[in-house]
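Let us work through a complete example step by step.
Step 1: write down the sequence.
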Amino acid sequence: MRINPKSPRYFFLAFLLVIISTFSVAQDFEKVQVETIKVADGIYMLLGLGGNIGVSAGEDGILLVDTQFAQIMEKIKSAIAEINEGPIRIVLNTHWHYDHAYGNEPLGKSGALIIAHENSRMRMTSEQNYPDFNMTMPPFPKEALPVVTVKDSLTLHFNGDEVQVIHIENAHSDADIVIYFRKANVIHTGDIYFTHLYPYIDVSHGGSIDGIIAASERIIGMTDENTKIIPGHGPLSNREELTNYRDILVTVRDRIKSQIKEGKTLEEILASKPTADFDKEQAKAIPPEMFVKIVYNDLAKK
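Step 2: predict the structure and record it as tokens.
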């Protein structure tokens, strides 16, 4: 598989990359370029391969939100060193999926404190099955595991900011945490929010369409017109775009739910193309058919 990290489809391909049995595509990791985007004073977003990385850089050192892949960690470190040469002291995982947390291992080995929701650690310590991809993945290495786990919330005081770590139940998964840099007015949503993309909802691990809508509404309530939002995937965003995303999810959910109540089969619902008016903008990563199937399978069991 050849991956172009500049392609809009790389977000989905990055996840698929680790749902295959080996990392035999090392040559593709070599081609990845890490891009740095300044979000606010002391806060940055890194684009590479996988989930967007948030960076807090200042006198206390470096705090990372998510870590992408170990295979590109030296490139990530080089990009961070251009911002601040301080040590990477804290890693926050928004959840445990491989495209967000597989870079933990080298950072854990070098002494960074890894923090995640308690369900993330539980998932990372055991083999996990992905029925959406018909694949099973092994446990994470010991050095990649969170050392501190969060149940509901945690506050860190780092680089002059109040960093709120907030668990939101059953949204993208059962282990989602949102990171809110209060002073900087920046929120990292993890995979609760994909900018201009349909989200992947990990229903088999506790995610739900209703939960991701409720999570989006909760995050909107934390924002103002100046808030910058780092999504799990996609470009840097804001409250207006997150609100539009929420509205799209509500519309698609309601269309599918209505047809389920009418007794329509999955095939009939797919044929009705309930996402058609949004596909031009949103279908750059998760294919519409896959998104509809995920939402259908979630709603049909309720």
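Step 3: interpret the result. The longest strand covers residues 186-194.
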